Amino acid sequence: MQAGLAAGDPGAVRPQTRWTGSKAPRCRIGIARPHRTCRGSDGAAFLDRWLGGNVQLNQALLDVIPCLGVERVYLASDQGSRRGAYVEQLYQGQRWLDGAFLSHRVSHRKPDPRYFDHILRTVDRAPTECLFVDDNAACVAAATAVGTAGIQFVDALSLTSELAARGLPL
């Protein structure tokens, strides 16, 4: 997501096309009309709804992460600048978090292989030294395609079982 609203977000504006000109249309003018979820909302209420709409911390997962026997942990998320700042604020104070790779900063989104290549270059690790966990199967498949190990997240208990099966100390 680039800075601003993405089409899939509840607060996204949907363009309406209006044709101008006397004969064949030569120019389209996009006119933004508010999406149904932001009608009747002031700016602050709309932002709160858009930012917090589906961003919730998974406390069971957060309790597991500090117990993992790993060197570093990074957040990898497809977020625009505003929503990314909100997500980073939610994770602020988590001592186990070493950084965040938000798509608006990386300039690529998961599952694009360039997203994962950027992360591997930045953390200066070979793909075989890394493990990628995500709830989206396509993103896990893309990460494994560049050589990292991958686990599709279902819940914290399944994750700890999968990590233990791979020999990762818990």
UniProtKB/TrEMBL annotation:
InterPro entries: HAD-like_sf, HAD-SF_hydro_IA, HAD_sf. This is HAD superfamily hydrolase (TIGR01509 family). It comes from Micromonospora pisi. SUPFAM superfamilies: HAD-like. Keywords: Hydrolase. One of its GO terms (molecular function) is hydrolase activity.
